[in-house]
Design a protein that fits this description.
Layout: E1 2-7, H1 16-28, E2 32-37, H2 51-54, H3 66-74, E3 78-84, H4 92-99, E4 105-112, E5 115-120, E6 127-134, H5 139-155, E7 161-167, H6 172-189
Parallel strand pairs: 1-2, 1-3, 3-6, 6-7
Antiparallel strand pairs: 4-5
Helix pairs in contact: 1-6
């Protein structure tokens, strides 16, 4: 299974060591990992122009690295959204990248479990893993982040999803254990 990591952490963020652990664990399970460090990419803001639906269906109208991010995302079996948490939501860099994934869905709607959602553009979408990071434990932000991943999994047609929040105050061993557990949970759901 191909894995894409959308790394929304700033340069030299302490979570880099945790991402190294995640990559090592994924590779030890035979997964091909494409690690996209969003700080190294040119990602403009979504203009809300709907060009990706009308002018260039399935591809963002803006010609920048967000097109690559969307291709990597849809071609993967697992997408990892890695971010420092801000009030339980994505950091600004990851939020910008996620906003630019809208070409992956259609401008049409259907009911999903009693709610209205966009129709999928593609026959298959990756599983979703949210990896949030905070300096200290904050269960409220952790709950908000888990809920955000659940909601985005519906919008992006992920058959399986999970979220994990790591805290700087935890030991590296504790954080590694949480990463392994969340990967194991995703594998059980397949």
């Amino acid at each position: 299974m191909r894995v894409v990591i959308l790394d929304g952490f700033p340069v030299d963020h302490p979570a880099a060591a945790d991402l190294d652990v995640l990559v090592d664990e994924l590779e030890s399970r035979g997964r091909g990992v494409h690690w996209l460090r969003l700080t190294e990419l040119k990602l403009g803001l979504c203009r809300g122009c709907f060009g990706c639906w009308v002018k260039t269906p399935g591809e963002c109208f803006i010609d920048d690295d967000a097109r690559r991010v969307a291709r990597e995302y849809i071609q993967s079996g697992l997408a990892v959204l890695a971010t420092p948490l801000s009030f339980g939501g994505y950091g600004s860099l990851l939020k910008r990248a996620v906003d630019r994934l809208i070409p992956l869905i259609m401008p049409l709607f259907k009911r999903v479990r009693g709610e209205v959602h966009h129709v999928p553009r593609y026959p298959a979408y990756p599983e979703l893993l949210g990896l949030g990071w905070l300096p200290v434990a904050d269960r409220s932000q952790e709950r908000n982040f888990t809920r955000l991943i659940e909601r985005n999994a519906i919008n992006f047609w992920a058959a399986n999803r999970n979220a994990v929040t790591l805290y700087a105050e935890e030991s590296p061993r504790e954080r590694r254990g949480k990463l392994i557990r969340v990967l194991n949970q995703l594998e059980v759901r397949r």
